[in-house]
């Protein structure tokens, strides 16, 4: 007796096409995810002596566990509203809901205050220029003037 | 009257150690950390946070809320005012149970109001009123958005509602030193630890405001030390030591010791805490264990078992509570909770009436953080 597949449209060729399509979509999403991470750059005030920063250190600074540089400079991290979720998920590898819950507990226990949040890049960069320990993430291509871009290492 | 060796030691301990510590804290903050106003920070840096929660609860008999009631449990406002990069003034004001001073309902109180100076991550000082750092929950005792259940474990943070006495005063009025050590800075990349140590007025008679005047010479001390491994496992110990005697020749010591343990991998959370206290000659101990899961980053089913032995010298006065519920983080800052509480008490617990030792209670709440 000849076997008839329950879904005739999914013939051998079409199943193969579906697999190829799914693979392309998956690769594309991966590409988009990687792309987001590389769209952002970490910038600091030119008075800050550091030029390289690790992901772990960046996470500690953004969760306000590390508030002072090794030179004793007071670190002031800043958030950019439009890119906030991308930054925490793609750069710091922290699920955004987890970060929100962390701050809910930290704020309401008096433990800490989250980074100051800015709505637009220009205001953020102006503020960053005035804060010697300032540190922020901005989209690539922003007009940085004399600010310093940090290299991120794993 | 001859001075005994014991009373001399006590006098020395109270006056020369605790009092000098107080003076040192006060002078060191004012002398070594001058306040300099920064050009970059202005009134725009004032940050305001808050939360509100409405609770509905209904019990099956008169041991709980038999009629079923809606309660505007909290409306709290928090203010952070950074004076410069190192100094910050923080305030937290609570309006509880739909406060109405005209009719003497509800409460308004300052949860905390202090200044903080940060010399480094490892050394910060606070002066003013703070919430006593003890265990996992006391610092967020009323902050419903910060925990899963409708209420924080009442057997530890408010044992008076379980027939016991407080393990520690809710607030401390005095000075605190605190700090955190990042292991990566000290050659232990997976281990972080932090400490809090405080000295303050401690407990007073109920009629005397400890934020204004101490009615006894004894100063209370306390602290908490916590270790965190790989941001997943946390272990901590807390202690409190005070004396509510009005004069030094009387003895009304109050010592408490607690320990807590938390495992949280983002999906599963297990929190366990235990505390022991001795006040005068009464010994009390209690604890809880809570497990919860995270589903789709929004749903948090939980179970908690609470236990309190209000007086170790009395048999059959324990209070046990089982709580099963779910917390739904509907969207950012909004939490909806529904839970079932089963309370089981020994017949000798002083809050048992009408011979009803157990009762069921359904509680539901909406908490909004902003």
Please provide a written account of the structure:
- The complex is a heterodimer of chains A (154) and B (370).
- With 154 residues, chain A is α/β, with parallel strands linked by helices.
- Chain A has helices spanning 12-39, 55-62, 84-91, 96-108, 121-130, and strands at residues 40-44, 52-54, 76-80, 116-118, 134-139, 148-153.
- Chain A has a single domain (41-153), classed as D-Maltodextrin-Binding Protein, domain 2, CATH 3.40.190.
- Chain A contains five helices and six strands, in the order αββαβααβαββ.
- In chain A, helix 1 packs across helix 3.
- The radius of gyration of chain A is 22 Å and the shape is globular.
- The model of chain A is unreliable at 27-36 (pLDDT under 50).
- Chain B has 370 residues and is mostly beta strands.
- In chain B, 9% of the residues lie in helices and 52% in strands.
- The N and C termini of chain B lie far apart (62 Å).
- The interface between A and B is medium-sized, with 28 and 38 residues.
Main β-sheet of chain B, in a few words?
16 strands, antiparallel, barrel
Tell me the number of helical segments of chain A per DSSP (H or I, 4 or more residues long).
Answer: 5
SSE succession of chain A:
HEEHEHHEHEE
Number of domains of chain B: 1
Percent of residues in β-strands of chain A: 15-25%
Structural class by sheet pairing and helices of chain A: alpha/beta
Please give the share of residues in helix of chain A. 40-55%
Task: Supply the CATH architecture of chain B.
Answer: Beta Barrel
Structural class, judged by helices and strands of chain B? Answer: mainly beta
Question: How would you spell out the order of helices and strands of chain B?
Answer: HEEEEEHEEEEEEEEEEE
Greatest contact between two chains? A-B, 28 and 38 residues
How many individual β-strands of chain A?
6
